[in-house]
Amino acid sequence: METAEHSILTHDGIFTVEARQPVPGLLVYQIPDTVTPDSRYRWTLGHHSGLAIASFEDSTDATQAAEAIAQLADWTASNEQIRAAILPNAELRQRYWDTVQGHGGLHPSDAAEVKKPRPVTEADIRMVADRYEGDDTDGVAIISGMAVNEPFMYLDDDAFNDAFDRVMRIVHPEHYAA
After folding, report:
1. What is the mean pLDDT of the segment spanning 96-115?
2. What phi and psi, each to the nearest 5 degrees, are found at residue 85?
3. Where are the domains of the chain?
4. How do strand 52-56 and strand 43-47 relate by DSSP bridges?
5. Which one, 96, 114, 117, 147, has the greatest CB density within 10 A?
6. Does residue 54 sit in helix, strand or coil?
7. Are β-strands 26-30 and 52-56 bridged in parallel, bridged antiparallel, or unpaired?
8. What confidence score (pLDDT) does residue 60 get?
9. Spatial contact of 43 and 56, defined as CB atoms under 8 Å apart
10. Radius of gyration (C-alpha) of the chain in whole angstroms
11. How far apart are CA 123 and CA 42, in angstroms?
């Protein structure tokens, strides 16, 4: 699939990016590092007009979403024509959004809020362990508390499980005795 330069409009201004066109009228491109730099959703499925449709964590998901919605509209049409075709039709609108979300897509403004995880430090582990050490709190309460607090809430499963294990080894060492 060939790439071509494409101009996108963001809250930070207009940028030129390299974009691929998996489906006529739909483009997949990576947003510049300076645009929402903390978001882990770096790939955009966009319309040739320059408007973003959805944000994704990787280009494969964005490309598959483009292919999946290809038959829902004439994406080579103007943005106004597509809105006129999709917005009045509640069923089509729902199918469109369910398809995009089913491939991991988020509305671009929502994706900006999903931050990249920062490395968990020993101080982070110690902070959680200090909170629970010495009481009879079970692992479910600890994991629930960690899941809704930074930096743990942004971790992928493996990194989260590793951090949880490190906390549990401090809070309940008796479960890890050989």
Report:
1. 82
2. -80, -35
3. 3-111, 122-175
4. antiparallel
5. 96
6. strand
7. unpaired
8. 96
9. yes
10. 21
11. 29
If one counts every other C-beta atom within 10 angstroms of the C-beta of residue 137, the result is: 14
Cα dist. 30→57, 72, 118 in Å? 10, 24, 21
- Residue 3 bridge partners (DSSP): 20
Overall average pLDDT of the 14-42 stretch = 91
What per-residue confidence (pLDDT) applies to 114? 66
pTM for this predicted structure = 0.65
Whether residue 151 is preceded by a cis peptide bond, meaning omega within 30 degrees of 0, is yes
Beta bridge partners of 7: 16
Neighbour-count burial for 46-69, b at 16+ CB within 10 Å, e otherwise:
bbbeeebbbbbbebebbbbbbebb
| 175 has pLDDT over 80 | no
With 80 as the cut, is the pLDDT of residue 122 above it? yes
